[in-house]
Amino acid sequence: MFGYGIPVEHFKRGMGRDPHIVIVDSGSTDPGPYQLGLGHTLVSRSAYMRELALLMDGCAEKGTRLVISSAGGAGTDAQLDDMIGMIREIARARGRRARIAAIRSSVAKDVVREGLRRGRVSSCGSAPELTETDIDETVDIVAQMGAEPFARALNEHPDADIIVTGRAYDPAPHAGFCMGRGIDPGLYWHMGKIIECGAACAEPKGRNILATIRPGSFDVEPMNPAERCTPTSVAAHTLYEKTRPDLLSGPGGTIDLRGARYEALDDRRVRVSGSAFIPSQGYTVKLEGAAIVGYRTIFIGGIRDPILLGQLDGFLAEARRRTEVLHPELARGEATLHYHCYGRDAVMGALEPLRDRVPHEIGLLGEITAPTQEMANAIAGAARVVVLHMPYPGQICTAGNFAIPLNPPENPIGPVCRFSIYHLLEVEDPTALFPIETIEV
Hints:
InterPro entries: AtuA_N
Number of domains: 2
Oligomer: single chain
Domain Acyclic terpene utilisation N-terminal: 49-391
Helix content: 25-40%
Strand content: 25-35%
Protein name: DUF1446 domain-containing protein
Shape: globular
Structural class: alpha+beta
Radius of gyration: 25 Å
Largest sheet: 6 strands, antiparallel
Distance between the termini: 25 Å
């Protein structure tokens, strides 16, 4: 992940192997919709600048092409332009010329509306059906490009030193580089799915990885000498982020892993073969859009009293009822209040098998979302005071149920986003939504 930290020594070791291309992914929906809805980047500008300088210097020295996908995290036009600006700044500081091929992925609302009206939009995963209201409320929309825009940029702009893109399917740049080179699509999509996470397929998990692909197989090798790939570690990573272990759907088709084989070449390298690709009947791209749904305030503290912990569910239910009396917006559904009990079931919720055990302490996070920040702050203050001072059966202490580590105790978080669009759009041309422009810096 671009910006998370590239070990310089391991990167240089990889460049010493004379790679044909260097690819780094910069995007993810894992952190949620805030990047898209608020225009925030996944990491700081200083983190991007640090790693961009390393990548540009290393690739310029070797004459190797650099590909950066999903610029900024969400891959919006604004984030892509910011990344181009950083490339320009570093090139100017180095006194170096570079040619950029930029692939955009922002999508106009009218394009989505037209797709919806023509019945070409379907839900992705558990997303509800898309509505016109969802589109209207959306702040920004991007389409997740497949391999074809990368292949087009690489083939039509062979003099481009750097290819930087908007939102992309994570394995797409690796697949795009391999298209038209006599390699089975099942292999290059499988390779891309593994190495888009760097050396996360190694033991222990690492950052930099070198892949070598040919007709019939590909090899993976971590660039940290202290790490190693094994058939188990690589096969296990193939299962990562999958709804099922044998088939993985993506733009243009499905990777079929039922015949995949993993062979140890030595104690650090693994060869993979047997992966296949099943083309889909129609070509779809995933649309991602975010809308602002309110404003959030939180408070946090600890509860240590065993008497209170033994009746925590009833205590929090009564605390909620008393807060709703003070703020009827909660009862009306205009605002929400959630308690997260860390140390008991904050991660798994009702699915937690150890939920009935009484812990010796919990960390309680109160989360309030409301139409305005002022309302969220007010409800958070009331909810926090209720938890702090409300009596309960068997209470021995006079007051102070809740140990609060922060001051001020209520912390405004700001706007809250939701994925208003998380849907598939059927397209006739896999490159039509993704225009390419060249820029000299």
